[in-house]
Amino acid sequence: MTTTAKKVGPVLRGLDDRIVDAVIEAVQADNPNAEVEVDDRGGYVRVTCDRECRLTRASLEDALDEEFTLAQLEPALSGFAGRMRYVSDDEIVWFLERED
């Protein structure tokens, strides 16, 4: 029996394309062993990984080539899949708490 993996990660809207692209690049860098899926619905962009998705400030700043805090993403974080915790000001982790 095949099971569908649970996806977790941020849902972004209201950001310019450069920042959305940087978030995608940073999530790919921070989750090297995961398949990162991007679902662009025009009004919002969903970025997900299976079961756990990390986003670090360092990877985001590398992708943007400028300073950028994770708190600057909060106004555009219209939602997310899974549970979210700030590990620090430098990292956000979305995770799947349990399996169904």
From TrEMBL:
InterPro entries with a match to the protein in the record: MOase_MmoB_DmpM (IPR003454), mOase_MmoB_DmpM_sf (IPR036889)
What does the UniProt keyword field contain? Monooxygenase, Oxidoreductase
Matching SUPFAM superfamilies: Monooxygenase (hydroxylase) regulatory protein (SSF56029)
Domain of life, per UniProt, equals Bacteria
The record's listing under Pfam families reads: MmoB_DmpM (PF02406)
MF terms in GO: monooxygenase activity
Q: Does the keyword Ubl conjugation apply?
A: no
Q: What family does the entry list?
A: Belongs to the TmoD/XamoD family.
Q: Under what name is this protein listed?
A: Monooxygenase component MmoB/DmpM
